[in-house]
Each structure stands twice: as C-alpha cells, then as structure tokens.
Design brief:
- With 177 residues, the protein is α/β, with parallel strands linked by helices.
- It has one domain: Aldolase class I (TIM Barrel, Alpha-Beta Barrel), CATH 3.20.20.70.
- It is 23% helix and 20% strand.
- The chain has a 6-stranded mixed β-sheet.
- Helix 2 packs parallel to helix 4.
- The relative contact order is 0.15.
- The structure holds iron/sulfur cluster.
- The site of iron/sulfur cluster has 13 residues, from loops.
Length: 177
C-alpha cells in the first residue's frame, strides 16, 4: 500500500503550471526554506494529509481533456518513489508530466547523493522539470511558469541522455540566470 502526503486536493484546470490544461498534485513537505515562499504551509513533513496513491491515481484517471499533471508543493522529490508510481499510471492514461522542485537538476542527478536511486526513479517519469530554489532577488511576474529567473524549464529526457541540463526547446529563448 503506497501512501503520499499532500498539502491539498488536486487542482484541476490549471493553465499556469505548465503547457496546456493541467491538474496539479500538491506534495506536502519541503526543506529548502526559500525566502518569501508563497506556500509556507507546505513545508512541514507532518502537515497536510495522507492519501493512498491508488486513490490519487483514480482521480487522475478520471481527468478529461487534460494535457497532463504537474507535481508541485512542497517538494515532490521528498516523496520520489510514491510519486514515481503515480506518474507511471498517469502516463499510461496518456498524460504528460511536469514537476517543480527546489533541487537543481545537478543535485538530483548527483551519484554521490544518498537519494540518487530514488530521485532517478522519479526523474525518469518526468517530461519537464522546473528546477531550483525560489530566489526573491530574481523574482519577476513576467516569467512563464516560474517564480524567479534562476529556475530553469528543463527537458528531462534530453538532459538525462546528454548528462547535463537541457532547456526545453519551446522556451529556450526565455531568460535563465
Ligand atoms: S522550494 Fe518551493 S515550496 Fe519549498 S521553500 Fe522554496 S519556494 Fe517554497
């Protein structure tokens, strides 16, 4: 029985959390402590509520006319194995996967990290990753799908193939610094 800790019910019909109409899964738990975080209630690892992964999967399978799901939070990479399972089922239902994380792509792919295997299993299910901590000094309301310009919109498949972060082609002309 796989369980997840979420900070709230799935948001459906979002157009601000990735390409197309998306459903957003809000993971509970984050250790990045970015200044001016918009979701401080998602930081505690005992907050929110627990849900069976299969219950969330049923909700996802019931989506209609959605392009994909987006993992947000909190930090989804604090629950990598459970969310990898959810993502596999979402993909079987024809949905693509975006994910937000406070970790950088380089941290998530660091072979010396004790989380390496678990992070690798979630990364392998994700199509597009928006990475890095929120930096209030780089905040702009003009940025597409991001809070601050240091956060990158990464094509995960290409990045894993090439061994370095590759910006998602569609947004390659955006500012990333
Ligand atoms: S990674 Fe996201 S949820 Fe976590 S502190 Fe930073 S902005 Fe907040």
């Amino acid at each position: 029985m796989v369980k997840l800790r979420l900070s709230g019910p799935m948001t459906i019909d979002s157009i601000v959390d990735g390409d197309g109409i998306r459903a957003v899964v809000w993971a509970q738990g984050c250790r990045h402590a970015c200044d001016d975080c918009h979701n401080p209630q998602t930081h505690s690892f005992t907050g929110g509520f627990e849900i069976e992964a299969d219950e969330l999967i049923e909700q996802i399978k019931g989506l209609r006319l959605h392009k994909g799901i987006t993992l947000s939070g909190g930090d989804p990479f604090e629950q990598p194995l459970a969310l990898a399972h959810v993502c596999r089922e979402a993909k079987k239902a024809g949905l693509d996967i975006w994910a937000y994380t406070g970790y950088t792509f380089e941290e998530l792919t660091d072979r010396d990290s004790k989380m390496h295997q678990e992070w690798a299993s979630l990364l392998s299910e994700i199509d597009v990753l928006v990475d890095g901590r929120f930096d209030k000094d780089k905040k702009s309301l003009l940025l597409k799908f991001r809070g601050s310009s240091n956060q990158r919109i990464i094509d995960v498949r290409k990045s894993l193939e090439q061994g370095c972060a590759v910006i998602y082609e569609k947004y390659k002309d955006e500012k990333f610094e």
